[in-house]
């Protein structure tokens, strides 16, 4: 395994252990209390347990070589650990999917990506290694890990309690249609739910060519974690993902809304190396500044042929509703 992948996965294992310890010692009502409200998102009590581990790990790492940490809850410019000019820029979301995890409903994921430090010019396109580790609810006894080195494909394993990691296939769906498959919808919060739902409905109607609603031919999953949606695409569980929140809120004249940020999509490399197509809302290859702030929208397709079939339709619907 690439040394940087080992380092990121080791960090995430420490975060996973800290979160599991917190789940053991505290009730959901305690873990879901608001600790503070930042510029990018709300920080809950469960997030604080992961933050402490992240900062301690980076402090130790900085004694070996200087690096800049950009993470949810930190200043936009990040924090430099070690002396001298940073060699690396590390972008982390310690817990992506805090809300379902803190209520013990569904797994969250710890996300990390690393790139050579280029200051404010550093972008996700510069990422050389990305990794993500599942943070399961208290009742789940296994967890998965996924990682990728640019140009080296994507890899994964799953560990059961007390056992050793067993490899899992990181293989997107080869399906050329959404029929009888799952799509990921980013339509979680108040503000633009009606508009986003109409966009999704129109895409599916056109794609399925006058579907019969009673047959339930496409299944929509509202997994409240962008990292999880990347994992679901890479593992072949979802075929399509759509997050138009920034433009939907702008269309409605809403100045601020909770959308994905670059750290939520910092592991896009894993899906891309597995063969998925990840684009921005204009159809270009997804990219963003490697920082914590800034709203981003994105579209994910399980494979290139599905993207070729769907993309013109998706772009036409977005022009119709969002221009």
Plain-language structure description:
- With 323 residues, the chain is an alpha+beta fold.
- It contains nine helices and 15 strands.
- The strands form three sheets. Strands 4-3-5-6-7-8-9-10 form an eight-stranded mixed beta sheet, sandwiched between helices. The chain has a five-stranded mixed beta sheet with strand order 12-11-13-15-14.
- Helix 1 packs antiparallel against helix 3, helix 5 packs across helix 9 and helix 6 packs parallel to helix 8.
- It is globular.
Short synopsis of the structure:
This protein is α+β, with helices and mostly antiparallel strands. It is built from nine helices and 15 strands.
Mean residue pLDDT = 94
Structural class: alpha+beta
Q: Please tally the helical runs, counting DSSP H or I stretches of 4 or more residues.
A: 9
Overall outline: globular
Strand order of the largest sheet: 4-3-5-6-7-8-9-10
Largest sheet: 8 strands, mixed
Please write out the topology.
Blueprint (H helix, E strand, L loop, with lengths): L2 H23 L2 H4 L2 E4 L4 E3 H18 L4 E5 L7 E3 L6 E9 L1 H5 L5 E9 L12 E7 L6 E8 L4 E7 L5 E2 L13 E5 L7 H16 L9 E4 L4 H9 L3 E6 L1 H7 L16 H7 L2 E3 L18 E4 L2 H19 L1
Parallel strand pairs: 3-5, 11-12, 11-13
Antiparallel strand pairs: 1-2, 3-4, 5-6, 6-7, 7-8, 8-9, 9-10, 13-15, 14-15
